[in-house]
Every structure is written in C-alpha cells, then in structure tokens.
Queue: 4 jobs
Job 1
Amino acid sequence: ATVNIYLILLCGLSNVLASTINSTTNFTNSNQISNNEMYSKAQAILNKSGVFQNFSLSEIENWMHNISTWTAPKALDDSFQYYLAGHTDENLPLWVIEIGKVKIRQIVTEGEAGKEFLDKSMQKLIKNVLQSILRNSSEEVSDFVAIMDFDGYRMSENIHFPTISYMQKLTQRYIHILDACLQKAVVINASYAVEVLINSNRPILGKLLEKVDVYGTNKRKWLPVLHKQFPADSLPPWYGGAKNFKPIKAFG
C-alpha cells in the first residue's frame, strides 16, 4: 500500500509554500511567474482531484498557505524523507522519495490522528512537487520525474487490512493529480513484497503504471538505468552520482 502514496504522490510529496512563493527560494529563477499565475496553474492540476475539485483560486491560495505552516510530528517527519535532487536535461524536476522508510502500518494503527498526519504530509509533498513544476513561465515544463526507493519495505505492510484499505482510499483521492503531472517514475529496490503490493493495486493505479519502470534489489541492474536517464550531478553518490552532490531542497 505504500507505493500508492508515492505513486500519487508522487505528484500525489515539506516546509515551504505560500511564504516561499512570495519570496526568493531554491525553486525560483529569473523567469519566476507571478503569484496569481502560479495559483491558477496549480488550481488547474489540483481540481482534477475530488479533494480540490471545487476549490476557487482564493481557496487554493489559502490551502497552500495552511499546508505550508503545518508541521508533521517528528517521528513521521523523520521517516517521510524526500528531496528535489536536481533537473533532467529537459529541465524537468527530479524528485527522490525514500518510500521504504515510511512505516505506513505503524502510522495507521495510531488511529485517526495518524491517518490525518499522513494525509497532510502527502498534501505537502504534492504542494512541493507542484511548486517545482510551476517555478517559471516555460510552457514546456509541466511534468516531473521521480526515483522511488523501496529499500526497507517489508511484507508485513501488505498483510494488514486497515493499512491496505486506507492506502487505497488515499490513492483514489490523489491519483488524478499524479497522473496529470508525472512524466516518469523509476522504482528501485523493489523486493517481492513490493511486487505483491503493485500487482494487488493495479486496478486502482491503472494507466499510471505505464509511466513507471520497476527494478528489483540488484543494484547492478538499476544503476545503469539511473545513469542513462538522469544527469550525474542530479544523483546522490549512493546512486552513482557526484560525490559533492547536494539536493536543491530536502524534506524530512
């Protein structure tokens, strides 16, 4: 069920927002669009989800402000780690999401509070990804790409019905946002447990899986793929990238 979050996430994904939109940040450049244009473009994407379907422009702005000021509990924030690693040769944002570190079952068993924290953390991820896409006026930059690392994911996440049920619900809430802005995702360290997870959720993920390439735990197989598809200076050294690598922005 964890893959759903981040395949949704993956567009659906964290401590910047309206305040960062209104000031100079690592996401912006000399071609920065106006705030109104930023919110308008975000609205067009977010409205594809039932969660934001009827949000006006001002409501989108308020949501972005509110989600940026919300802080996740430390335990969740520490495990929910992702970062804007760099950009592709086509200038698309490259996000790395360490999915395997998030213990969804543990969060869900905490009750409604845990579910709410997870949902809001996902909304922050979505906001951060959108902001990286809409950082300038280029009509060519409308998508993002992602590396999703499942190292640490366990089969125990798959056999807990409340966890599966909640993650499917979360996926359905944000799947259309992800489908609207994800160009490609590379899943690495996909163990047998991850394969079971993906196969059991194919009906929900649907055509989105056509944008996802899945590789197992053999580093010798997926490392050349990362080198071929992404610039070396946008990859951390543990993925064979530059030793002096530094992400543009990190969360968690």
Job 2
Amino acid sequence: WSSSRTVPQGVIPFKSGVIFTQRARVEAPVSTILPAGSSTDLLLVLSLCSHRINNAFLFAVKSKKKKLQLGVQFVPGKIIVYVGHKRSVYFDYNVHDGQWHNMAIDIRGQTVTLFTSCGKHRVHADLHFKKDEALDPHGSFLFGKMNQHSVQFEGAICQFDIYPSAKAAHHYCKYLKKQCRQADTYRPNLPPLIPLLPRDPSASPSTPQHIELSLQGLKNLTTAAPSL
C-alpha cells in the first residue's frame, strides 16, 4: 500500500511488505484478484514469516455459497492445501519457526507440489479426487483467515503472487522480489513482533470488523502474472 491509500486496520506496512496482526480483516471479491473463469490450476509464490503459532489460513477462496474452493493453512509442522470443500493434502513443513520462508505451491491437475530451496527440494501430493475446475467469480477472497470468525494469520508478508502457469515452479526464486531473496537474513527495523499489538477490546470475535478491499488496495499484496 502506498501512503495515499488507506491501510486496513491491523495491517502494518514495512519496507519489504506488510505485517498482519490479529486485528486484520482483509477480504475482497474473487473477481478483483483473478479474472472470471480462473482455473484452480495455479502457482503460488510466497515469501513470509509467521509471528504467532496457530492454525490460521494464509488465504481462503470461498464460493458465493460459502463453500471453500481453495486455501492454504499453516498448522504446527504442516502445510495443508485445500482444493475443495473438506478436500485437502498436506506437507510436512514447519512455517511456525520464526524464520523467513520462500516457497512455491503448484496446483496442477490431480497433483499439488511444494517447492522449497529455490526448487531444489520438491514434494508431491496426489489429490485422489476430481477438483473443481474453476473458481466462483462471485466468491470471496479472504487473506489470513478461513472465515471472519476464525483465527487470523499473524506475520510478515514480503510476497504473495499468483501465476496461471507452472513454468515458474521449478525456478520460483527468479520470480522473487529482490527484497524477498534476502528474507532469511533481513529483519525489519521494528519493535518486538510478538505480540505485535495489544488485543483490541472493541473487536470481539462475535463482531468482526469487516474491511472490504478494492483491487487497488490489495494489488500490491496479491499480484497476478501480466498474462492474466
């Protein structure tokens, strides 16, 4: 986000990206993130650092009927990738270790692949079921949550990019922003990040503060390949 744009509550900009706190509420229509008719075959290129151990979703795409179509969840010791309602695969990988992690997640046909170490390490997982071919253009994209009442992902995001092609998967480090390539050694000059902010007494789980983001507001955080 630039200084001229309104920063959502609970989101803190820093030099290389943004930090999500437990008060963040970021949601946008799927149509503002991906073009209509977008396939569930896609590649995610991520650079992030978790600040709190929990079971939060990094993001979730839900249909107009509130069915989960796509999502990534970080639980201690595992990454879970959802490609349909109650349909998922998991990888043994711990994001909640206080370190920066650069990775790519490729969803292609009946296979999900996790790439790490700039493509040197890769793990495949078979879906064993037929997934939805297209995302609901009338659905919603939630960042850091599965729904407005679930636990919030808390951490720093340097890069979150969506690509329609798997060509970038094996060499995803070539697609990392310059400031994210040094993520393992770079630390933002900020106060201690745990806890990031005191719990907001006015924001109770029963009355979440919903923030609707336009494409402009989310564009610097989630970017799609120019070919889209």
Job 3
Amino acid sequence: AAILLKLGGYGLIRISSMLNPHPPNLMFPIMILALWGILMTSSICLRQTDLKALIAYSSVSHMGLVTAAIIVQTPWGLTGAMTLMIAHGLTSSALFALANTNYERTHTRTLLLVRGLQLVFPLMSTWWLLTNLTNMAMPPTINLLGELFIISTLFNWSTPTIIITGIGTLITATYSLYMFLMTQRGSISTQFRILPPTHTREHLTLTLHLLPLGLLIMKPPLISGLFA
C-alpha cells in the first residue's frame, strides 16, 4: 500500500504526460471509473469485518482520488496527487502497523471479536486515534492539503464532481471512526483479559510514521512544489 500503489500512481503521471491532450474516448471512461471507485470502495469499508481488509480497501478509495486528479492533467491536480500519495503512504503503513500489533496479541483480525482494547493499551489507543484522524484528513496534516488540491481540481474540471468527492470524504470519515470505535471502545472479551504489553519499538515505528505527516505541513513545497 505504501510503495506499490504509489509506484502505479507515478506510472500514471509519466504516461499521462505523454498523452496530453487526452483523447476524450480515453479520458472519460477512466475518470468515471475512478470517481465511481471512490464511492464503491468507501462503501465496502463500512461493511468489512476483517481489519486488514478494511485498511486495504481504504487505500483503493484514496487512489481513486489520485487517479482522477492525474487524468485531469493540471498543475494543481498533479500537485494534489503527489501530496496525497506521500501522505497516504505514511498513513496506510501506520494503520497496517497498528493492525499487526493487535494481531500479534489477539491472533485475530475480526473486528467483532477484538473490542475494548483502549482499556488494556491506552497509549496504543492514542496512536489509533491520531492515525484514524489523519486518515480522514484532519487539518494539521498534508492529507488535507492533498485532498483540497484534488477536490478543487475536479470541481474546476466538472462542477458535479463536488457531490461525489463530498460523499466520498463523508464516507471516509465514517469508516475511519467505525474502525476506531470497533477496535478501541466497548467491553473487552474475557479471553483477552491477559495480553502482552506493547513495546518501545512499536511506539517508535508509529512515531516515525506520524511525525513526518505533522512536520511536512510546515514546508509543503518539499512535496507539493514538484508541479506548481
């Protein structure tokens, strides 16, 4: 999710520049599939019971935004696509790392079985909250910057796209909160009363994921000035 999806996005940027201006019979089907994919994969996330499957589908949803921005072929679109790819690469990797910490202790990825972990791992619950807020593009992160660039680009390309991107953003916030509440809140099962403690290396790994997301917003040209 952090490397291969972004390699595909980079390939789209390189190929799209060679097809500029795009032939309409090539542009519109890909754009429709990208926008429809945002809604479909976001909706699928709401009914997932497997934690890793939920995170994987959320990656596909974000890449739908990236694909749509690349196809438009404007400086704002390419800047937003590059920004969101870097931001989501760190966010998705952090979510998979958190899912792995849960799996190593409970040996299950089913959301219905693993609940109430906030009572056992309060510090890890803080990482879950920060990562999920980042996934839904909270203001201090570059995720919001990338999504604003992309949504503005698509709105300038076609006004009705604001409806699809708006609904997609709403569903993203919904399944992010759903993921946090299903894993952290509620009463913990009796079979998980005794769990191994978290380790320093796990907290260090999550710090190295989330710290760049907070620091890069202080100097956006490092990632967003490539196409400006």
Job 4
Amino acid sequence: MAARGPERVSVLLPTYNERDNLPLVVWLLARTFSDSGIDFEIIIIDDGSPDGTQEVAQQLEKIYGSDKIVSCVFMPRKLFLFPSGTAYIHGMKYATGNFIVIMDADLSHHVRLDFMYCGKQKEGNFDIVSGTRYKGNGGVYGWDLKRKLISRGANFLTQVLLRPGASDLTGSFRLYRKEVLQKLMEKCVSKGYVFQMEMIVRARQLGYTIGEVPISFVDRVYGESKLGGNEIVSFLKGLLTLFATT
C-alpha cells in the first residue's frame, strides 16, 4: 500500500447512466493527479443505474485498486436526478481526504483539478474553490439557447434576491475543505438543482472564504441531460425559501 501524504483529495463522483463516460473521466482524473503528485481517491456514487454503470465502476475498482485510487459506492434506488446532498452525504462516509472535490461524471467539467487545489486554494487558503462559468474567461459550450437562458436566469435571480457574493451559484464543480463541507451538509436542506446554490449561500452566512476559478463547461459527450421541468420548478421554490429564511 502506498504511503499517504499529509494532504489528500477525495473526488465525489455521482453517476446515473454514465457507463460510457465513466472509464474516460476516471482515467483522466487519475493521470492528472498522478502527474501533479497529488494524493487522491475517486469515490463513485452510483444511483442504481440500469445501463450497467455499476458493473463498469466495479471493473475500474479492480483495475486501479480499491484502497487509494477508486472506491465504488452504490445507492440502491434512483434518489437523485441532479447531483444532490443525498449523493454527497453518502459519498462523504467513504472519503478520507482533507479536501473534497465534487464534480459531474459526464466530462462537462475540466479534469485539471490541480489548478483548483494547488493553484487557487493555495493562493488564498480558501475554504471553498468554485468553478465559475460567468467570470473571466469562463464559458459554456454545446448548450442550446434555452439551457443558457435557464442557467443565466437562475444565477441572475439568485444574485438579485440573495446577493451571495459569488458569480456561479448553480455550478457543481467545487473544492471544499472536508470539515467545511461536513458543516454545510448539516445546514443545507435543499435537494436537486437548488442544492448547489444553497451551499454557497450558507457558506457566506457562516463566514467561509470562497475563491472562484473560471472554467469552460462543455455539454456532456454521451447520454442525455438530467435537467428537466421538475428541477426548474424545484429551483424556484428553493430560491424563494432561501430568500424568506436567510
């Protein structure tokens, strides 16, 4: 067993029907961490995918090793359409890292996590580093006009009503200190699309420091988007609840 360094990064990777994307994203993450000399683990949290994602995850666990490289965690039923607190709470039980990265498994997020961990986090000793599509040279590629309007509109409404002090509230590519993420999980009550927004709002309330890194978000390579009408309605309800209670 390889010795662990004083700091370790755990990647929480929620999946649902990602059998085509999963091998590539795991390989890219493992190569990036290894090249950067960062101690890491990847925790796959599958939500009972019917497409065989669980079997692929188990194969990856055998290939990379179950202790350090990849841990496979399976949820028995489809509890989340959008990565939510339910998935992350489940994955946190297995995380051994000092820092936790949450990201999507559909290749929409850049796997160069070293720029978040070794770069921005170290630069300002931030409690949270959030990838932003709406600052600097960040952007979105591959979305139609409808999805762009929904995302922009969600962020605009949040900025007006909650003034959170961060530019991208609905993104799901972030790095947290483990103890900070645990504390936020205790405070957050939202599910689905609004969960990411509440995490930032609660972080500001608790006085945690947040750094932002511009990212290029690329629409998923394989599979279909899991954002639908129900998630949009849930977001609006959650936004109003946060406005009334914060």
